[in-house]
């Protein structure tokens, strides 16, 4: 093989590649034209029903994962950035755009409760909870406050701890908190004959009738154990603290 025929072979390969690229591009344009003329749905038009819009865009929110803490504890910014931004970031489907005071003004005038009510239940093309059923109501409320406040409102996000706003509290976290604040004084040390946390031998006889029975006794008080251990909160919260202790003691 001489050098010149090798280089003309190389030239042929280059030409072949160029021709293929041109053919592919032409084919692509043709397909795109066919698809847009034949599908009957023109994305640029606003004639789709709101249901159709919702159905089309709903999955956008569904696949997102909200970062920034365990479920229930995420703040408005984290929820907005994971879920709501997919529509409200751009004003998609007629949603009030983030930071657009003129779009948010009339919404804000409806009041915080109406707005979060709509955001939780859904409102026209706005899917319930932005399409993410995993969000807690408080998380949606926080995202509403976060968005509305960026549009000129002064709503207060429900506290992340949840208790003050009556939101869902993670019982394990709450139980530990109460135990450390109230029960530890006796049950951490065994003071006054209290069964210690983690002392299986001390707990076994008390748990023979089940944890619920032991908790019911402790709510009423037993000898040196004052009613609810002196805890002033609800029975529900006392129970969370008791379970925190019992679960580590059997
Ligand atoms: C799939 C798109 C989409 C997603 C995701 C979405 N929204 Fe919306 N949202 C809309 C549309 C569209 C409207 C306007 C509905 C209307 O006024 O008819 C709207 C309106 C709202 C309103 C105003 C309701 C009212 O009464 O005027 C609030 C509040 C709201 N959204 C909150 C949220 C929150 C919070 C999230 C995230 C958890 C979220 N949205 C996610 C599309 C979306
Ligand atoms: C002032 C000390 C004290 C505090 C504070 C206290 N306990 Fe106790 N607790 C005791 C003593 C003492 C006993 C054992 C009473 C007995 O058997 O005579 C006991 C027993 C119990 C029992 C077992 C009841 C049974 O049926 O045997 C449970 C459950 C319990 N406490 C839960 C709690 C929880 C939850 C808290 C905190 C919210 C708490 N206690 C705070 C002293 C305390």
UniProtKB/TrEMBL annotation:
The keyword Amino-acid biosynthesis does not apply. Keywords: Electron transport, Heme, Iron, Membrane, Metal-binding, Transmembrane, Transmembrane helix, Transport. Residues 71-151, 170-249 form the Cytochrome c domain. One of its GO terms (molecular function) is iron ion binding. The keyword Metal-binding applies. It holds the Pfam family Cytochrome_CBB3. SUPFAM superfamilies: Cytochrome c. InterPro entries: Cyt_c-like_dom, Cyt_c-like_dom_sf, Cyt_CIE. It comes from the Bacteria. The chain crosses the membrane at residues 12-32. This is Cytochrome c5. The lineage of its organism: Bacteria, Pseudomonadati, Pseudomonadota, Betaproteobacteria, Neisseriales.
């Amino acid at each position: 093989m001489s050098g010149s025929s090798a280089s003309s072979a190389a030239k042929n390969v280059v030409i072949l590649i160029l021709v293929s690229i041109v053919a592919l591009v032409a084919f692509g344009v043709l397909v795109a034209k066919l698809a847009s003329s034949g599908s009957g749905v023109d994305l640029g038009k606003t004639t789709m029903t709101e249901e159709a819009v919702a159905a089309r865009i709903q999955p956008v929110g569904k696949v997102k994962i909200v970062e920034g803490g365990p479920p229930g504890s995420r703040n408005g910014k984290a929820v907005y950035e994971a879920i709501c931004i997919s529509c409200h970031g751009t004003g998609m489907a007629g949603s009030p755009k983030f930071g657009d005071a003129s779009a948010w003004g009339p919404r804000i005038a409806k009041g915080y409760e109406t707005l979060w009510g709509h955001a939780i239940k859904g409102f026209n093309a706005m899917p319930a909870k932005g399409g993410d059923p995993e969000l807690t109501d408080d998380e949606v409320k926080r995202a509403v406050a976060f968005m509305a406040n960026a549009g000129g409102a002064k709503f207060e996000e429900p506290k992340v701890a949840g208790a003050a706003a009556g939101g869902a509290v993670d019982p394990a976290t709450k139980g530990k908190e109460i135990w450390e604040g109230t029960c530890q004084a006796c049950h951490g040390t065994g003071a006054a004959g209290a069964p210690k946390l983690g002392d299986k031998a001390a707990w076994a006889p008390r748990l023979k009738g089940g944890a619920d029975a032991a908790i019911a006794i402790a709510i009423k008080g037993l000898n040196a154990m004052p009613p609810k251990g002196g805890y002033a909160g609800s029975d529900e919260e006392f129970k969370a603290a008791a379970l925190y202790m019992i679960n580590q003691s059997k």
